[in-house]
């Protein structure tokens, strides 16, 4: 028979001989654990969704929606919440003849000036791959107004990761007022900005704040209970029945809650733990898989973050690591600076002044390497900072040690750390 013939020639014909052909089932629908999977419900964000709805509602009454600014740390459901509400509004518009709606949704990622962001928006509206260029800023803004005037009567522009544009934020001032200033006649335009960079929000110029901030919605970090319900809903669809030991979801939630309260992180942990079990032909996911998953993801996170560090960032990070080993953290800027000087001396590096070193320490805080505590100085005014390492010490030392420029110092620190551990 033909079938027999093929089987005998096929090197993978017997069950399990092909390494990809696992018979074990852990996942029922793995796609539910992927980053781009869209949840239908967000009960943990009910009040934020309602605030967004209230801000968008004027659009259904024939005037412009409020401008809106959403902020909160990474993985808090900001993007997914806006997607959810904008989709509902679009559905409503499609079913009602008297709401003519255009939604432009984009990320400002990599657009570091108003000019670039404006060109990027024009490209998005035109649906073309090429950005306009070679004209001055005002002409670029005018071009955007022209494109907007070809859209429906109600225009909502969602700009995710809006912090990319930094202090070059003129567009954020101009765009919400375009109608008031006569640049656009027919359309009602509103802007929704989203950011996980709290410094950006604090540093926005007062005139942009005034223009962009009809409503501001904070997405506070999820607590362990909220992360648990988020994971439970995913797990129900993602895993076959009985694949999860009882401790697994609470542990994933606890780890993520202790860190930034990020739903993304919690979901990644659960997914990784599932993969670890499956790759080892184990049918049930246990606490141990979660612990291992955490170590793997933490290492990956440090490695990725480390790639974007400047040499001065590295010096500052090394200073904290050294203080951490000496058990002198959390440390004040002055203390870190002393350590920094000795490290830079030894490496013959370029030495910055204390204030600049503090900037680097704060930037390391933003990037998730350090915990930064701010203390007010009381009646003298001002504030001072205390820094400590947030990432895992051993993994951080290990990864820093891979850089040949600073390898010697790191080796010494590892030795000191080992001796301390032995005592
Ligand atoms: N309440 C929730 N219920 C279900 N899934 C959620 C919830 N909140 C967040 N998620 C999921 O967590 C992940 C991160 O959410 P999202 O991308 O919206 O975060 P974000 O606040 O925009 O983060 P960032 O600032 O990094 O862009 C997504 O996969 C999203 O589907
Ligand atoms: Mg987002």
Q: Can you give a write-up of this model?
A:
The protein has 423 residues and is of the alpha/beta class. The protein has three domains: 45-218, 3-Layer(aba) Sandwich (Rossmann fold), CATH 3.40.50.300; 222-304, Helicase, Ruva Protein, domain 3 (Orthogonal Bundle), CATH 1.10.8; 308-422, Arc Repressor Mutant, subunit A. The protein is 50% helix and 11% strand. It contains 17 helices and eight strands. It has helices spanning 2-9, 46-56, 78-95, 114-126, 137-148, 170-174, 198-203, 206-212, 224-238, 248-258, 263-279, 287-307, 311-325, 333-346, 354-366, 393-400, 407-422; strands spanning 68-71, 101-107, 154-160, 188-195, 215-218, 331-332, 370-376, 383-389. Helix 11 packs across helix 12, helix 13 packs across helix 14 (333-346) and helix 13 (311-325) packs across helix 15 (354-366). Magnesium ion binds at residues 78-79, 160. The site of magnesium ion (MG) has 3 residues, from helix 3.
Give the second-level CATH assignment, the architecture of the largest domain: 3-Layer(aba) Sandwich
How many structurally independent domains?
A: 3
Give the ligands present.
adenosine-5'-triphosphate, magnesium ion
How large is the radius of gyration? 26 Å
Provide the β-strand percentage band. 5-15%
In CATH terms, the superfamily of the largest domain is P-loop containing nucleotide triphosphate hydrolases
Q: Provide the residue-averaged pLDDT.
A: 90
Number of strands: 8
CATH class of the largest domain: Alpha Beta
Order of helices and strands: HHEHEHHEHEHHEHHHHHEHHEEHH
Determine the CATH topology of the largest domain. Rossmann fold
Globular, elongated, flat, extended or rod-shaped: what is the shape?
globular
The percentage helix is 40-55%
């Amino acid at each position: 028979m033909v079938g027999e013939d093929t089987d005998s020639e096929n090197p993978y014909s017997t069950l399990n001989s092909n390494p990809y052909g696992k018979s074990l089932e852990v996942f029922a629908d793995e796609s539910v654990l992927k980053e781009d999977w869209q949840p239908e419900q967000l009960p943990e964000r009910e009040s934020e969704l309602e605030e967004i709805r209230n801000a968008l509602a004027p659009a259904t009454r024939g005037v412009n929606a409020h401008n809106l600014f959403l902020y909160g740390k990474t993985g808090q459901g900001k993007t997914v919440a806006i997607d959810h509400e904008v989709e509902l509004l679009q559905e409503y518009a499609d079913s009602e003849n008297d709401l003519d709606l255009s939604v432009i949704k984009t990320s400002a990622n990599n657009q570091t000036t108003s000019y670039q962001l404006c060109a990027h928006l024009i490209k998005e509206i035109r649906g073309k791959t090429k950005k306009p260029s070679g004209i001055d800023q005002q002409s670029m803004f005018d071009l955007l107004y022209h494109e907007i005037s070809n859209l429906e009567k109600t225009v909502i522009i969602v700009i995710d990761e809006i912090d990319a544009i930094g202090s070059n934020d003129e567009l954020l001032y101009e765009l919400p007022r375009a109608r008031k200033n006569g640049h656009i006649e027919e359309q009602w335009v509103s802007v929704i900005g989203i950011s996980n960079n709290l410094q950006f929000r604090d540093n926005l110029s007062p005139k942009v704040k005034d223009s962009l901030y009809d409503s501001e919605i904070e997405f506070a970090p999820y607590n362990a209970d909220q992360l648990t319900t988020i994971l439970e809903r995913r797990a129900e669809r993602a895993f076959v029945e009985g694949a999860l030991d009882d401790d697994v979801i609470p542990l994933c939630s606890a780890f993520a809650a202790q860190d930034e309260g990020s739903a993304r992180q919690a979901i990644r942990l659960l997914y990784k733990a599932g993969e670890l079990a499956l790759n080892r032909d184990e049918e049930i996911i246990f606490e141990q898989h979660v612990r291992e998953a955490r170590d793997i993801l933490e290492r990956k996170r440090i490695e990725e973050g480390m790639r974007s560090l400047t040499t001065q960032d590295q010096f500052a990070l090394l200073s904290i690591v050294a203080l951490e080993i000496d058990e002198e953290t959390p440390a004040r800027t002055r203390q870190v600076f002393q350590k920094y000087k000795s490290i830079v001396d030894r490496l013959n590096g370029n030495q910055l002044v204390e204030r600049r070193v503090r900037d680097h320490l704060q930037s390391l805080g933003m990037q998730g390497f350090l915990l930064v505590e701010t203390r007010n100085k009381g009646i003298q005014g001002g504030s001072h900072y205390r820094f400590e390492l947030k990432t895992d010490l051993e993994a951080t030392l290990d990864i820093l040690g891979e850089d040949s420029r600073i390898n010697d110092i790191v080796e010494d620190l590892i030795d000191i750390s080992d001796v301390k551990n032995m005592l």
